[in-house]
Amino acid sequence: TLVISSARITGTNANDFAFGSPFTRMKIKPGGVDSIHILFVPSSAGAKSAELDLTSNSGLLPDSALTRIILTGTKDLMQFSISKDSVIFTNVAAYNQKTDSITITNTGTKAITWNAPLSLNYFVIDSIKPKTTAANNGTSKAYIRFIGDAPGAVHDTTYTLRDSCGSAKSIHLR
């Protein structure tokens, strides 16, 4: 019978990994199977690594064998910035349309895919090109159109642009 008497997470990023439940001594009969659940709980973005050290009776002396299992994980960062937080349409003739744009910069480590068109009362986000903003400072342009109204009408709205992980930036449209 194999006896695993201890399990420890060690190494450079040991704090970014955790046991799914407290480790208890394991006895595994020949042909048997058991498991240890390890969670990846990184505190910051990037690649992380650590080791799972298991002490067992598989050496010459009881509790003398050390088996090391490499643990790796990567936490991606989802975030973006926008070139301006206001788009103000001025001098638009009654019932005419006008278009402006903002640049979206992906400051994260994973590509972001956007959905457009999107109607916002008197404003429309016609398109975002490219539809997927590449990671690590890739850019896309969002084209925003004011669809016009009667003479003297003023329209004001705030739209919140969200990525797939919920990161948000607000854009004031007027």
Helix content: under 10%
- Widest beta sheet: strand line-up: 7-9-14-12-11
Following the backbone from N to C, one meets helices and strands in this order, namely: EEEEEEEEEEEEEEEE
Estimate what percentage of residues fall within beta strands: over 45%
The tally of beta strands, per DSSP, is 16
Structural class: mainly beta
Low-confidence stretches: none
- For the residues shown, what is the average pLDDT? 90
**Alpha carbon gap, first and last residue:** 74 Å
Number of helices: 0
Q: Can you tell me the overall shape?
A: rod-shaped
Estimated radius of gyration: 27 Å
Task: Please give the largest β-sheet.
Answer: 5 strands, antiparallel
Walk me through this protein's architecture:
This protein has 174 residues and is mainly β. The protein has no helices and 16 strands. The protein has strands spanning 2-10, 17-19, 26-28, 38-40, 46-56, 65-75, 80-82, 86-87, 98-106, 112-113, 118-120, 123-129, 132-133, 138-146, 157-162, 168-173. The strands form five sheets. The chain has a five-stranded antiparallel beta sheet with strand order 7-9-14-12-11, with no helix packed on it. Strands 3-1-5-6 form a four-stranded antiparallel beta sheet, with no helix packed on it. A three-stranded mixed beta sheet has the order 8-16-15, with no helix packed on it. A hairpin with an 8-residue loop joins strand 5 (46-56) and strand 6 (65-75). The chain is rod-shaped and about 90 Å long. The chain starts with a strand and ends with a strand. The model has no long low-confidence stretch (mean pLDDT 90).
